[in-house]
Specification:
- The chain is globular.
- The chain is an alpha/beta fold.
- It has a single domain, classed as Metal-dependent hydrolases (TIM Barrel).
- An eight-stranded parallel β-sheet has the order 1-2-3-4-5-6-7-8.
- The longest helix is centred in the middle third of the chain and has 17 residues.
- β6, α6 and β7 form a beta-alpha-beta unit.
- α8 packs across α9.
Length: about 260
Amino acid sequence: MNPKPAMLIDTHCHLDAAEFGDHQALLLQAAHENSINRIVVPSVARANFAAVQRLCDQYPVCHPAYGIHPMFVDDATPHDLEVLRDYLREQNTVATGEIGLDFFVNNHNIAQQEHFFIEQLKLAREFDLPVLLHTRRAVDTVLKHLRQIVLRGGIAHAFSGSRQQADEFIKLGFKLGFGGAMTYPRATRLRELAATLPLSCIVLETDAPDIPPEFIERGQPNKPEYLLRIAQTLANLRGVSLEEIAQATSENARAVLQRLPIL
């Protein structure tokens, strides 16, 4: 691997997840040793808004996003949206998220998902915040709603759509999140996108503890420290230096997440 770059930003990491227990300090030390200097921590439901806030208050490298994930909306209530509004008022909030749609799981309440997605898009617009989007098997429907509720942009997290869909997100002011899935040689379509999309539209993420990269032992959780090797994969795919990837993706993250503080 090339010498470590000056800075990397993990734009999507569930550092409060149960898989990590109370080992956040050790995880963040390892991340720091691997050049990860900013981590965005999205919530998934009202139940973990406070945990995300406490974690980000305790560790200055972490920055919160608040939202209700589509896989958690079945149990969500209108009052949850009012609580979310209060959290989005906080000045340290960098985005609304993780929000979106997920049509992968059968028998999931699509109408409920779309209702909460639309209401959260309205909140993001109200507070002029970017959004962190979950789009699994639902990219076109997500794009439809984004055309109807115009925002300042955001990140299409764990992007796995087509080049045409990528171009549509870019037109709407979005960056595309690439992470562990890109490290698998068999992910040919995703790796082609990573290699050929404009570098100006790409940001890096782990989605830790989920979407583990190819280079870790099967069954082990993803960790923020692995972002460095994920960045190296992107550098290899594009035939550029690790430092160029670090600089470009960090600039891209700051362009879309404008409340991220400067080091």
